[in-house]
Amino acid sequence: EPKFSGPIANVTVPVGRDAFLTCSVHDLLNFKIAWLRVDTQTILTIHNQVITKNQRITLSHTEHRIWQLRIRDVKESDHGWYMCQINTDPMKSQVGYLNVVVPADIVDYETSHDVVVERNQNVTLVCTAKGLPEPLITWRREKDQPLYNTAKGQVFTSEGPNLTLWQVTRSHMGAYLCIASNGIPPIVIRPTIWTRYTTIYVNYRQSVTLECISESHPISVNYWLKGTEIIEGGTYESTNEKHIYKIIMRLMVRPTKVQDFGEYKCIAKNQLGFMEQTIRLRYKNKHNLQHLYQTNNRNNQLIVFEELVTNVGFSISSWPSFHCLKKSLFIVTSTEAYTTVTIELS
């Protein structure tokens, strides 16, 4: 008389990975094993044959004792109870549960984009995320700036999909980060790469550091291009957090001739694909552009960022519009998803 050697272990698998459900029996003799999906009463396999038309499902066994059901490229709809049966009389069966989890992801069309408001108005930023389990949404600002001030002091983070700022002033201008996290890392990540500034203006013989940040899994190969030529040098700072490889690329440029200006491309490539970003290095012309000057005294760098000229009630040279921040920038990192929203005063 065949018997089960032990229960079917419940399995939790991130979407996109392979799931394995194992049914162990002994003394099977001439009896047969079948796998079924409980909620739909669908027969998946009978003994050595796969019955279902779902090509993601396969079966393997070891000496007719260990029967393993494999579901490749698991989808969210695969979650539920699965039954292993022995065709004895009466029938013997046991079940195991497949739990499918989904990494956090920002829902772009339901999330705030860059906004322009008048001084002393109220503004509410909205961030929507999806995933299983349900993601926790946190708001914060870049460079550890406070979100707002209260009677008890400065507030640096806020949880929840909505962030309301009351009677905004110039101190509220800038980028706000929405971070969605549910602890589930993506299985594979083709390279993503981004840069804060896509256009930089400098003079001849002024040093500037171009910077790009990439994330991927498996780790990517990173390099710089000028035209079609690979640029030697630069620094590549690599970190690995929860199997996600993050590389900060920096390239020091000191233009001495016309050919040194133009487009520089930062590239990240792994076996899943490649991604590139372009940084345009342009000659600073005071006659046709207004500029914001930012000086890095340690490296004696003078960096000039292009401004968006708008009709405002105060000096444009004092309070530029940082349109170089990408709208709804989506960055996949470890167990979190990000988006950036920029607030400007009109």
TrEMBL record:
It holds the Pfam family ig. It is found in: Cell membrane. Residues 2-96, 103-183, 185-282 form the Ig-like domain. GO terms for cellular component: neuron projection; plasma membrane. InterPro entries: Ig-like_dom, Ig-like_dom_sf, Ig-like_fold, Ig_sub, Ig_sub2, Immunoglobulin_dom, Neural/epithelial_adhesion. SUPFAM superfamilies: Immunoglobulin. Keywords: Cell membrane, Disulfide bond, Glycoprotein, Immunoglobulin domain, Membrane, Repeat, Signal. SMART domains: IG, IGc2. The keyword Transcription does not apply. This is Ig-like domain-containing protein. It comes from Glossina pallidipes (Tsetse fly). The lineage of its organism: Eukaryota, Metazoa, Ecdysozoa, Arthropoda, Hexapoda.
